[in-house]
Design brief:
3 helices; 151 residues; single chain; alpha+beta
Length: 151
Amino acid sequence: MKNKLKLAFAICLGILLLGCTTPPTPYKPASFTGGYLDRHINWDTFRVSFQGNKNTPRETVATSLLYRCAELTAHLGYDYFIMLDTSPEQEQTAPTAEGTMSAQGTPMRDDTDTYTRTAIIRVFNGRKPADDPNAYNALEEMQKLEPQIKR
């Protein structure tokens, strides 16, 4: 009987621990678990960002950001966008527990809680300039990236 109780307890504990695993951030509007966020800077310029949690691959964050730029452009009725600026990836970690400081007084933490990528884009109508590597056709990008977007 004792062994059966121990086994049942171990199974329940395992199920609980599996339920605590954070899945990668899906493509969705921003919430406390991450996602995309747009800010209107002026009539044709936007700041777009995507934040993924620690289980979201960096490539997924970059792909989701590019997809959101294309989706926003198309949703607003424009044909293409130009990336004016992209920020380097930003990493954020949760506060470190006491006693986990190095001898130099810096936090000893090797896991990152979130990855955020941000871009400033300007939207346009007409044909995408062929000679600008920062110009993207919104519908073409959405079509190309759609299979990689996890909702």
